[in-house]
C-alpha cells in the first residue's frame, strides 16, 4: 500500500478505522459502486491494518452502494504470524453489507522469481486505438474517466473470448495490489465479447493473486480470457503484464451476464 493508493481512492481514517466516501468516479455508468473500486479499497485497508504487502485477495459482492454513501471498511486480523498475516474485510454502508474480502499478506524476502507464461504479442499502446464499451459515455463521471484503455484495431477479429487491453491510470501507476485490483475487474468484457453481446454484467466475485506488487507508473497489458458460460454465469481470468514481460498479477472472476442491455441513467440519446 502506498500514499498514492490512499490519495487516489480517497480513503479516510478515523480512530484506526477506514472508510471510503463514494463518489461518481468510484462508480459504474449505471450509478453503483464499481467492483474494482470496492476491491481496491478493501486491499488498501487490509494492507494498512496488516502492515504487510498483500499477495492475495478474494472478494464476494453481496450488495450495492451508490454515490454519496460512505463505505465502512472493517478489517479483522485472523492470523498475524512471523511472516504472514490473514484478514477478513467487511465493507458496509450502515448495516447493509456490500462486499466482503479475505486477504493474505507476507513480508518474506523476495528471493527467486518465475512465471510460466508469456505476454501476448500485440502492438504497443501508441499503435493501438482507444478501447471503449458501448455503455462508456464520455459525458459521465464514472470510473471510466480515470482509465486510459487501448486495444489492437483488430481485437474483435481475434480469438473469441480473448482480448488484450492496454490500461493505465494517470496519476496512479498500476503495480500496487490496490491499483491492480482496480483495473483487473475486466473479465466480464471478455465473456460478453465471446458471446457476441455487450449487454452488461454484474460481478459475483473477484480474486487477485499478486506476483509483483511494487509501484509502477506506465501502461499495463490486461490479457483477458473468458473460460466458461452457463446459466447466465460467465467465468474467466486476466493476467496483468508490464511491457517488459514481467507478470504483475493474475485475476479471476465470475459474473452474471444480462440478456438485455441495462439502461444508463441520463445517458445521451443517439440521434
How would you describe the overall organization of this protein?
The chain is an alpha+beta fold. It has a single domain, classed as Porin, CATH 2.40.160. The chain is built from four helices and twelve strands; from the N terminus they run H-E-E-H-E-E-E-E-E-E-H-H-E-E-E-E. It has a twelve-stranded antiparallel sheet. Helix 2 packs antiparallel against helix 3. The longest helix has 16 residues. The radius of gyration is 18 Å and the shape is globular.
User: Per DSSP, what share of the residues sits in E-state strands of 2 or more residues?
Assistant: 35-45%
Multimerization state: single chain
Which outline best applies? Answer: globular
H/E element sequence: HEEHEEEEEEHHEEEE
Broad CATH class: Mainly Beta
**Strand order of the biggest β-sheet:** 1-2-4-5-6-3-9-12-11-10-8-7
Domain Acyl-CoA thioesterase-like C-terminal: 125-257
Domain Acyl-CoA thioesterase-like N-terminal HotDog: 29-102
Pfam families: 4HBT_3, 4HBT_3C
InterPro entries: ACOT8-like_C, Acyl-CoA_hotdog, HotDog_dom_sf, TesB_ACOT8-like_N
SSE inventory with pairings:
Elements: H1 3-9, E1 11-14, E2 17-21, H2 35-50, E3 54-61, E4 70-80, E5 84-93, E6 96-106, E7 148-150, E8 162-168, H3 177-184, H4 187-195, E9 201-210, E10 220-230, E11 233-241, E12 247-257
Helix pairs in contact: 2-3
Amino acid at each position: 500500500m502506498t500514499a498514492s493508493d490512499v490519495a487516489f481512492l480517497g480513503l479516510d481514517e478515523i480512530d484506526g478505522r477506514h472508510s471510503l466516501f463514494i463518489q461518481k468516479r468510484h462508480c459504474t455508468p449505471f450509478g453503483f459502486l464499481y467492483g474494482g473500486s470496492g476491491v481496491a479499497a478493501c486491499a488498501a485497508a487490509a494492507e494498512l491494518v496488516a502492515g504487510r504487502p498483500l499477495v492475495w485477495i478474494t472478494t464476494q459482492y453481496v450488495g450495492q452502494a451508490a454515490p454519496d454513501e460512505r463505505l465502512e471498511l472493517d478489517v479483522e486480523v485472523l492470523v498475524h504470524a512471523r511472516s504472514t498475516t490473514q484478514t477478513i474485510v467487511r465493507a458496509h454502508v450502515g448495516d447493509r453489507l456490500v462486499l466482503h474480502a479475505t486477504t493474505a499478506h507476507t513480508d518474506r524476502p523476495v528471493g527467486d522469481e518465475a512465471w510460466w507464461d508469456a505476454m501476448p504479442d500485440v502492438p504497443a499502446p501508441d499503435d493501438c486505438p482507444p478501447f471503449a464499451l458501448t455503455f462508456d459515455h464520455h459525458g459521465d463521471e464514472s470510473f471510466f474517466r480515470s482509465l486510459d484503455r487501448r486495444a489492437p484495431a483488430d481485437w474483435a477479429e481475434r480469438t473469441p473470448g480473448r482480448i488484450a487491453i492496454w490500461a493505465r491510470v494517470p496519476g496512479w501507476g498500476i503495480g500496487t495490489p490496490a491499483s491492480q485490483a482496480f483495473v483487473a475487474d475486466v473479465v466480464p468484457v471478455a465473456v460478453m465479447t465471446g458471446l457476441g453481446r455487450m449487454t452488461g454484467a454484474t460481478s459475483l466475485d473477484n480474486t487477485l493473486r499478486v506476483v509483483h506488487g511494487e509501484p509502477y507508473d506506465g501502461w499495463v497489458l490486461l490479457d483477458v480470457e473468458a473460460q466458461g458460460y452457463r446459466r447466465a454465469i460467465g467465468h474467466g481470468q486476466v493476467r496483468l503484464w508490464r511491457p517488459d514481460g514481467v507478470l504483475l498479477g493474475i485475476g479471476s472472476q465470475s459474473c452474471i451476464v444480462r440478456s438485455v442491455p441495462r439502461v444508463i441513467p441520463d445517458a445521451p440519446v443517439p440521434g
